[in-house]
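Fig. S4 source data, part A: sequence.
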Amino acid sequence: MGKHTEETVLRTPHETTHYDPRTAEHDLPAKAPAVLAPVDLGNVHVGTPVILSPMAGVTNWPFRVLCEQYGPDGLYVAEMITARALVARNPKALRLCRFAPSERIRSLQLYGVNPSIMEQAAKIVVDEQMADHVDLNFGCPVPKVTRRGGGSALPWKTDLFTDVVSRVVRVCDAAGIPVTAKIRVGIDHEHETFHEAGHIAQEEGCKAVTLHARTTAEYYGGHSDWSRIGELVEQLDVPVFGNGDIWGAADALAMVEQTGCAGVAIGRGCQGRPWLFADIKHAFAGSDERTDPTLGQVCQVIMRHATYLTEFYDGDERMAAHDMRKHVAWYLKGFPVGGGVRRAFMACESLADMQRIVDGLDPDARLADRIVDAPRGRVRFAKKVHLPYGWLDSRQTTHDEREALFGDDPMDASY
């Protein structure tokens, strides 16, 4: 096996020692009152700077529409679009580029390693008027992405990072489409990248930067270190959005108070809880109003979500019912429904199947208080960080590295 078909595997021990700032025994002082002013990303106005972060398999237009119905002046980003797949006109990629007529801002996230392919994808977005805003993914920690130099691995190579950002910004700027970048703290704490990446993104024309305050090695484990968001806020002139461990409105307030960030980005915290965007909007308006839905109200959202997914899948109820399986698990978390109900949802093949189960549930049941703002989704640590062979040897890419990255078409056009 040649060296360029091998990979570097970084065995980083459990890194996170950061406490949860919501716990009473670790009471952080506030930097400033929690105030969020509207943010302008070029000509895109975000009235309440709260972002729905792109999540693969989650933030297609049906879920985005639900979230936007609760917080109509936020920014709701489509799930990651692989640049190579878009250039190849992959049907799934094109489906993920669809927006509902009701969406106020059409926001796409592009992902790739090859600057030329990223540039071509950006041109497609511009020429076909696909979006009003483009986000660039430099935050994904998944091994199948990082082992190809993508996602959160890419900012380590500052030349490649600069090339990707500058090419996409140049294409989008000509059409008045703002570009933003999503990054992580680094590969691990021995290989941090967010300072340089933030400055490069700003200098190359990005209108904002979102920082997920974990390293690749930390994956989704422990609690993100919000102090790193504050560091970036102090260094950059463009707006910085904070991301990581916002499970409820109180967390959003705390992040802004402690970091001074211009806005917050919500990922796993809204899974099964699209109304979180309403709660956060109320919180930043100084209101104590919060959404406390009954099981009956949640079931109405479930069926609305399933109906939207049926439209997303061109009328295929079976596809919609299967897609809803993960969402139903999130929606029902904390409600007093048994395993039999959950298994029944997993067996649904149509909207009628789902409606029959919904009709048999107690519409007045409520969540336990301890569950309302509880963490959800993936919380595991990455055991290893997978990178291209020799990736950490230098902050610059060599000719051989670029040949290895681009020559075998690693940005697969399939999904």
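Fig. S4 source data, part B ends here. DSSP finds 15 helices and 13 strands in the chain.
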